[in-house]
What we know:
Layout: H1 12-33, H2 35-44, H3 65-70, E1 86-90, E2 98-102, H4 104-120, E3 128-131, H5 139-151, E4 154-156, H6 163-173, E5 177-180, H7 182-194, E6 206-210, H8 216-226, E7 229-236, E8 241-247, E9 255-257, E10 262-267, E11 281-287, E12 298-304, E13 306-307, E14 319-320, E15 325-326, E16 331-333, E17 336-338, H9 340-347, E18 353-364, E19 367-376, H10 378-381, H11 385-403, E20 408-412, E21 427-429
Parallel strand pairs: 3-4, 3-5, 5-6, 6-7, 18-21, 19-20
Antiparallel strand pairs: 1-2, 7-8, 8-9, 9-14, 10-11, 11-12, 12-15, 13-14, 16-17, 18-19
Amino acid sequence: MIFDIEYETMPREALEAIQLRRLQATVERAYATVPFYRNGFESAGIKPGDIKTLDDLKHLPFTTKQDLRDNYPFGMFAVPMDNVVRIHASSGTTGKPTVVGYTARDINTWASLMARSLAAGGATRGDIVHNAFGYGLFTGGLGVHYGAEALGASVIPVSGGNTKRQIVIMRDFGPTILTATPSYILHLSEVAEEMGVSFADLKFKFGIFGAEPWSEKMREELERKLHLTAVDIYGLSEVMGPGVSMECHEAKKGLHVFEDHFIPEIIDPVSGETLPYGQAGELVFTSITKEAFPVIRYRTRDITSLNPEPCICGRTHVRMNRVSGRTDDMLIIRGVNVFPSQIESVLMEMEGVEPHYQLVVDRVDNLDILTVNVEVGEHIFSDEVKQLQRLERRISKNIKDYLAVSAQVKLVEPKTITRSEGKAVRVIDNREI
Ligand code: DLL
């Protein structure tokens, strides 16, 4: 397997020359083989030959999730089905799933990128990877699996669920790398505690967590509870799966985008204008090496910003700051924008509050009411009602002070909020649209 790690530290100019060649080839092929792209380019009055510099990318039309749905299931594939060796799909919360395909070469590229991601996160050949990302149509399980094998590590394909059995495996097999969604990790640590297994006695060195937003405070909490170094992994099935960008364990400060395969842009989600480095907006990706499912200016709906500063790890690839949320997860409560991850940061500052919460939004008499249900520890819950009410008021005040949003806070009994085995459902929106 070729890992192409030399690209990770390449001087900018050399990297950009490679990106341009790859972009031109991708645009040519998408135009020639996918009617959606050909029609889009034609409506915009652009021919593939017009892409002469990387900057010309911004003249190409965007691709949205709706476009993928309109071409469900295989309409965006750029190769005949004979050449497709794998299909994944993401369920999404509404509408049809988005379906993506991979050629044999795409699978190799992905495995190599995932090996590079795991290495950036601290893994090496001698490691044992406990892979608790779900296997199946979701890209997390198989993505990590192929990457770990390509790296030469030993992978335990436990997937999500059967949590007690997972704890026994962790104790008996001695895995050194843990991969899962942060919300499932919380659940795992809780079950371990119930079973009398302490993470301090396990062998984990690094936790590679992602597939959902998680705050810096949550990182601290997980590192403390699990006795490991936690790093963030990002990706989406439309662009490839996990391994689009990855935090290095040396800096733990933003995720390096694998720019030899993907070109990131940040746009203003309303005007579509490209934004400069440092400014937060919607992340857009163009794939430049994929065969079966190339994406051109795909709007991820994820909110972040890009940081071009050099990193202590030596990688020259631009970093994206951790994703704070999705444009479609952003709650607008009486005109104030708020992401669940911001509420999470406030909650996790508070003594006695557990990292299990859910936000419920209702509309009463045309007013949006945000309720934050949050668990507290056993010892707190047995306190007097008055004390609990005081804590509720304190949390509510902090949310108001930090985020300028009014919320009703409800402390709930330990273990009453549904635990997640994959991505947590943080928001229940009861408002009628
Ligand atoms: O979640 C791929 C993945 C698997 C990434 C395992 C990391 C680890 P999808 O199911 O298509 O793919 O969901 C993609 O999840 O657009 C983000 O909104 C969110 N997401 C993924 N990683 C992160 C992260 C996989 N590290 C969607 N931080 C993306 C915040 C994330 N959000």
